[in-house]
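User: Predict the complex.
Assistant: Input components as received:
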Amino acid sequence: MTIALYNTLTRATQPFEPLDASNVRMYVCGPTVYDWAHIGNARPAVVFDVLFRLLRFFYGEGHVTYVRNITDIDDKIIAAHQATGEPIASITARTTSAYHADVAALGCLTPTAEPRATAHVPEMLAMIGRLIEAGHAYVAEGHVMFHVPSMAAYGALSRRNLDEMIAGARVEVVPYKRDARDFVLWKPSADSDPGWDSPWGRGRPGWHIECSAMSGRYLGETFDIHGGGIDLIFPHHENEIAQSICAHDGRPFARFWLHNGYLMTEGEKMSKSLGNFYTVHDLLAEFPGEAIRLALLQTHYRQPLDFTKEGLVQAKRTLDRFYGALRGTVATREDRLSDEEADKEVIAPLAHDLNTPAALAVLHERLASLNRASSSVEKHRAARALLAAGEPLGLLAQDPEIWLRRADSAVIDEAAVNAFIEARAAARKARNFSEADRLRASLLAEGIILEDTPAGTTWRRA
RNA sequence: GGCGCGGUGGCGGAGUGGCUACGCAGCGGCCUGCAAAGCCGUGUACACCGGUUCGAGUCCGGUCCGCGCCUCCA
């Protein structure tokens, strides 16, 4: 089995072969830490987490380097500081830890490295220096600008040529630009704004240079995969390519470019100005993180995804059925984590450009097998197979009881529930079914669903 | 204007030219005191028009419709 990935660079699905199978290298654009992460930040985190898991399966857990940056210097952060007065260091520390909590709740593995931009300013300055020496950048009024016409191949990723960009005429026109398409590598900072000393005066980096500098630092000049949202293709990724290739004497940058599709919410284009975005933090107050993860994986990563509360309700119910089937079938966590054979039937669709919906269809087959199993030996085997199938997707990793009863929440008094169940059992034994049904209904009103099984009555939260 | 995406059954959503996607909802049955969960069975689809092919949802051309980007954005 081989991996094939859709490469934005070639607009084709291509067989994936890493440069070095002992160290497969992937860079993904992470969040700018100025606010809660929204669901649009969550999609690439989850999508590329699945790719990370897939690569680890193919090349070994110790042979994949996954870098996801934290942008902690940016005009939006400065704007947030000016709006609220909260110190910048506080804003970035607070939102960074919130982001980490969010992606952990979504079941994402921790990347190999999560470099922060402010910790890599020297690398950026070095790269900017090389670009100036090589004639690809110039200094103007305290700014360092990348000169776009100095790179003939500029525009290859987004497939636009230099003339078209001028025709667009929406590029910012400022007097110090030699060309309207030039973009900033370094800009001066006001005394009140964060800044670093540089050969061109006190200032701060432009948006794109950090990713070039940090990917180079952690992954080398040329690496395997660069991921991010589709909206980053232009100008962010185009400019990253230009900076990196020009700073590296024309040597290639990322070989595969992967982009996840747009997100809509409740049928509308998601946008900050419309205020119709969900933060992961808010969604987690209403839904389990795993339901959010499933909702994101039910659509292929390159397709637009309409993210709705109703979709989350559905995803939660789907997981109820999975965990309901798993309930009582796997004795211990050790058992679950033992060296289970990976499920090739799940890996295969994932290896074909991360077809998570097709992989989920296999999960449903495993679920049906488990539900059909009669003997306890069969059940145990089927349950392990289902758990193994869930692993590449990062699903079904928790204790079914915790999922079904929300056992981590203190809202429900288990002893009281058990008292109801016993009272109902007595009523049923006495064939007083109206009383039994009354007890069941009163629990349902509290959000507790009873299920009678041959082994007795169990309950779960609605 | 430039670049690009998509139109699949009631809904969501895959599809790597030839074999049931899958899930939800619906319908019939089994199980159950009745439910819930589960099991079995079942109907409904490829926007339109041409073309290539033994064969097209899948490839090519065209038409219609919807949408995105080109400005901070995952």
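Chain A has three domains: 12-260, 264-405, 414-461.
Let me know if you want any component modeled separately.
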